[in-house]
Amino acid sequence: MALVDYSSSSSHSDSENDEAPSAPPAKRRKHSPGSGPQPNAPSAPSSSESGLPPLPSAFHDLYASTVRHSVVDDPALHQGRKRLIPHVVGNWPSHLYIEWHPLADQHEKLVQLVCKVNEHIGNRAKLHNFLTSDLGAPLPLHISLSRPISLSTSNKDVFLDKISSALHASAVPQFSVSPKRLKWYKSPDSNRTFLVLQVASSQASNSTGALSNPELMRLLSACNGMVQSFNQPILYQTKETDSADEAFHISIGWALDLPVDEESNKALDAFGDEDFHFVKSWKISVPGVKVKIGNVVSHLPLSTGAASTASKGLSKSLFGL
């Protein structure tokens, strides 16, 4: 059989491969700052070139829980905080809420605001924030639509199905809210005082100075009605005459044993500084409601249709009775 006649260059290359094993590629020699000319290092890609697509919203639901250190209530593990609902095997701590992930510049501005208020209250109390984790990562914030509640193993799945149906029946479309005021909120269940941003519907007129939240009121009505049917405490509307329109808020900080008095209220004037004027123009979108049962978070989307009018019966009672 005749041999294939390769060109001389190919023969030379093949013979080199046959005679000696291939050596690893030579490492590039490091140069000291004064050792002569160096090749230009590749420039780092710009933010527009290296920008990654945003994570899907469902991703955040997978890692919404912190690590459990103990099933026993130990305030030393939580900066002096006490568990409102004691841990009971077979019960699932649950919560209904609207989640907000501030943009980077919004997060930075909120951190500055909390620091400013902390400077004003001085050594009366230490103001902790809800904005950043122990590892320095930005944290999501929320608007509560329920108190902390507890569901049994036997009814947690039923609750999720029913609250999903109730929110769908409420026909609340997607909407947005805006921060309008900075307030202190004294917890009725603990010795904590919260620094909160009161919110109002971005579409509502506030010519009278009152905060209006027609969409949040309808969502709260659906949530409270369902929570009450499972023998759990409702949020805000403990009496028929109670109004929750101005109660909706986003907690951004908290302190232990801080009295709400003239001195602490003066610290809230920081919100009126020029640095924070545009915070009131932020639009916080509300695409749906989160249902957290144990460490599992479900997202219940709101409809994308045109906004509908509020229920006529809301002025009489939270549950339309």
UniProtKB/TrEMBL annotation:
<keyword id="KW-0539">Nucleus</keyword>
<feature type="region of interest" description="Disordered">
    <location>
        <begin position="1"/>
        <end position="55"/>
    </location>
</feature>
<feature type="active site" description="Proton donor/acceptor">
    <location>
        <position position="142"/>
    </location>
</feature>
<dbReference type="Pfam" id="PF09749">
    <property type="entry name" value="HVSL"/>
</dbReference>
<keyword id="KW-0456">Lyase</keyword>
<dbReference type="GO" id="GO:0034477">
    <property type="term" value="P:U6 snRNA 3'-end processing"/>
</dbReference>
<protein>
    <recommendedName>
        <fullName>U6 snRNA phosphodiesterase</fullName>
        <ecNumber>3.1.4.-</ecNumber>
    </recommendedName>
</protein>
<comment type="function">
    <text>Phosphodiesterase responsible for the U6 snRNA 3' end processing. Acts as an exoribonuclease (RNase) responsible for trimming the poly(U) tract of the last nucleotides in the pre-U6 snRNA molecule, leading to the formation of mature U6 snRNA.</text>
</comment>
<keyword id="KW-0540">Nuclease</keyword>
<keyword id="KW-0378">Hydrolase</keyword>
<feature type="compositionally biased region" description="Low complexity">
    <location>
        <begin position="33"/>
        <end position="52"/>
    </location>
</feature>
<dbReference type="GO" id="GO:0016829">
    <property type="term" value="F:lyase activity"/>
</dbReference>
<dbReference type="GO" id="GO:0005634">
    <property type="term" value="C:nucleus"/>
</dbReference>
<comment type="similarity">
    <text>Belongs to the 2H phosphoesterase superfamily. USB1 family.</text>
</comment>
<dbReference type="InterPro" id="IPR027521">
    <property type="entry name" value="Usb1"/>
</dbReference>
<dbReference type="GO" id="GO:1990838">
    <property type="term" value="F:poly(U)-specific exoribonuclease activity, producing 3' uridine cyclic phosphate ends"/>
</dbReference>
<feature type="active site" description="Proton donor/acceptor">
    <location>
        <position position="249"/>
    </location>
</feature>
